[in-house]
Design brief:
Elements (H helix, E strand, L loop, with lengths): L2 E7 L7 E8 L2 E5 L4 E5 L14 E4 L5 E4 L2 H7 L1 H4 L2 H41 L2 H18 L2 E2 L4 H14 L6 E6 L7 E3 L4 E5 H6 L3 H16 L2 H20 L3 H5 L1 H7 L4 H17 L5 H17 L14 H4 L3 H10 L2
Parallel strand pairs: 8-10
Antiparallel strand pairs: 1-2, 1-6, 2-3, 3-4, 5-6, 7-8, 9-10
The structure holds zinc ion (ZN).
Zinc ion binds next to helix 7 and helix 11.
GO biological process, one term: proteolysis involved in protein catabolic process
Cofactor: Zn(2+)
Family: Belongs to the peptidase M48 family.
């Protein structure tokens, strides 16, 4: 039979009696030289353990028993072993698990739920609203970042004719501009306006090369990547703005979101697949786009004075808004 040693006080005299505690048939038995006591366990009060102090057993008549051996006590009365500390400990574990679950949920929500929601919203926004969005964004870009294009009217018309021959979407509009800050670049705005910058046109050897870049941008348009990107950034931004109580700075930042937040690699791969299929179906080679990515890589490295092997991702420009160039070039060269 399990037992544990304790000190018994009868509640009338301050005399300590050595006893041995055991349990049988729901009764606590105390045996000692001067003590012989049996009590129903249900009639006893056993306070929760406090740190390392001895466990107490209180009797209804004022007597008490102290047990210093908390392990032996827990062994004898396992159902009474848990005190506030162990309860708290199990609650802390539960709380930590809860926090981790919540964190996991938030990350999953950010990683998968938010893109899904943005995609669903992007599909449902009316075309007129998107056109208006492009209009306002373009006005803001024109004001801060863009200058009139120096590409001759006739060349622009040729590029437009070839691009629309490739992908005659009603939703696509080409806009030619120059930009000192944005350099060799092309952007798809949320409503389908594709902005083509002079430095990009200057990099191309022929119209087919620029059209290959546009095929990639058409992929972004078709799959509403810019809109989804902005919706995602706006949801996070709005949540942050609500928290910080400042919405105006967020709205002012909308064009920067478009220009400085790169697309995800998933979006890039997807736009490349779209471009490759489009080019192949028009008897053009996806290597045209790969060649342009090579040229853009050299251009942006020179612009930022980067050595070969330096990381590019943190810098602005086409390759940071359309990331993963090495991987993309390899894919496009294989698709030829
Ligand atoms: Zn892209």
């Amino acid at each position: 039979m399990k037992s544990v040693a304790g000190i018994y006080f009868d509640g009338r005299q301050a005399i300590a009696h050595r006893v041995v505690l055991s349990v049988e048939a729901g009764r606590l038995q105390l045996r000692g030289e001067t003590v012989n006591r049996d009590e129903l366990l249900s009639a006893l009060t056993i306070p929760a353990p406090l740190g390392r102090s001895p466990r107490l057993i209180l009797f209804a008549d004022g007597a008490r028993c102290e047990v210093a051996d908390s392990v032996g006590f827990a062994d004898l009365l396992p159902e009474r072993a848990g005190g506030w500390l162990s309860i708290l400990e199990s609650h802390i574990v539960a709380a930590i698990i809860g926090v981790l679950l919540l964190l996991g949920l938030a990350i999953a929500g950010y990683r998968w739920g938010l893109p899904y929601a943005a995609g669903a919203v992007a599909e449902r926004l009316p075309a007129e609203m998107l056109t208006e969005m492009d209009h306002q964004l373009f006005a803001s870009l024109d004001q801060h970042w863009l200058q009139p294009s120096g590409v001759p009217e006739s060349r622009r018309a040729d590029i437009e004719a070839k691009a629309f021959g490739l992908a005659p979407h009603a939703e696509v509009r080409l806009m030619f501009r120059a930009s000192r800050q944005l350099g060799a670049n092309a952007f798809a705005l949320p409503g389908g306006t594709v902005l083509v910058l002079d430095d990009l046109v200057d990099l191309t050897a022929n119209d087919d090369e620029i059209v290959a870049v546009l095929a990639h941008e058409f992929g972004h348009v078709r799959e509403k990547h810019a809109l989804r990107q902005m919706l995602q950034a706006t949801v996070v931004g709005l949540a942050l703005a609500a928290y910080l109580g400042d919405v105006s700075s967020l709205l002012a930042a909308a064009p920067a979101v478009l220009l400085e937040t790169g697309y995800s690699r998933d979006f890039e791969r997807s736009a490349d697949r779209y471009a490759a299929d489009l080019l192949i179906s028009h008897h053009q080679s996806p290597t045209l786009l790969a060649d342009m990515l090579d040229k853009l890589d050299v251009y942006w490295r020179e612009r930022y004075n980067l050595k070969l092997g330096d990381r590019m991702g943190e810098f602005g420009g086409y390759l940071s808004t359309h990331p993963g160039s090495a991987e993309r070039i390899a894919f496009l060269r294989e698709r030829r």
